[in-house]
Design goal:
Strand content: 35-45%
Low-confidence stretches: 14-26, 203-217
Oligomer: single chain
Order of helices and strands: HHEEEEEEEEEEEH
CATH architecture of the largest domain: Sandwich
Radius of gyration: 25 Å
Number of domains: 2
Structural class: alpha+beta
Number of helices: 3
Distance between the termini: 13 Å
CATH class of the largest domain: Mainly Beta
CATH topology of the largest domain: Jelly Rolls
Helix content: 10-25%
Shape: elongated
């Protein structure tokens, strides 16, 4: 009789046990996934994550147009009158984020500081795209005020997932806004935030399923 009652209690609360165990296995915490401060002109990522890795910013697509010295501690993109008001898809700054095996990253926000001190014919624009769709659409499309003496913070909400062991690559593009002269766009404090989730191992769910099956068999035998 005691065993029968114990079995009934376990069966009654089994779903709660499974859910609670699943939640503990898939713990979620808000994090800064990647951050670039360009301190001292460095293109290195300053994130300290332990469940993912992020690359340094690569400017080799057009290293003559990018630099980190025109304005201290920022990424500089130099434009000239002949660039026109359009993205050059071969001219970008690039970085990647890779989720460690056993973790999934849910990316939720992008932010950065920007300014342009010039007065081009139209406002210059900053874009960000990713290889989630082969760099086809804009995650960010931000016009910058002309003659801006100080940095402005821009924030965007995104929805993207990097599954366990996979990589996501991001690119920053620019257009000069029909520049009437040669000048610069300054970018600083690029940050992507989101959550890191532990991916439960199949063995954990197999163990739960085995407990459920064993309890069910024992209960049926007891009843018979």
């Amino acid at each position: 009789m005691y065993f029968f009652n114990l079995t009934k209690i376990i069966m009654k609360n089994l779903i709660t046990i499974i859910l609670a165990t699943g939640l503990s296995l898939a713990s979620v915490h808000a994090v800064t996934i990647v951050e670039f401060n360009f301190t001292g002109g460095s293109l290195a990522s300053s994130d300290t994550g332990t469940n993912w890795t992020s690359s340094n910013i690569d400017i080799t697509s057009n290293s003559s147009r990018f630099n980190t010295t025109a304005l201290a501690d920022s990424l500089t993109w130099g434009f000239s009158p002949n660039l026109g008001d359009a993205i050059n898809l071969n001219d970008y700054a690039e970085f990647s984020i890779t989720a460690d095996v056993g973790f999934t990253l849910a990316l939720t926000d992008i932010s950065f500081n920007a300014r342009t001190p010039a007065s081009p014919g139209a406002n210059p624009t900053v874009y960000m795209r990713s290889d989630a769709d082969s760099f086809a659409t804009n995650l960010v499309q931000q016009d910058l005020p002309k003659n801006q003496a100080t940095f402005i913070l821009y924030e965007y909400t995104i929805s993207d997932t990097i599954v366990s062991g996979s990589e996501r690559t991001f690119r920053l593009y620019f257009d000069s806004g029909n520049a009437g002269g040669t000048n610069n766009i300054f970018i600083d404090d690029i940050q992507i935030t989101g959550t890191a989730t532990v991916v439960p191992e199949p063995s954990s769910f197999a163990l739960l399923a085995g407990c459920f099956g064993l309890t069910w068999v024992m209960l049926r035998r007891r009843r018979s």
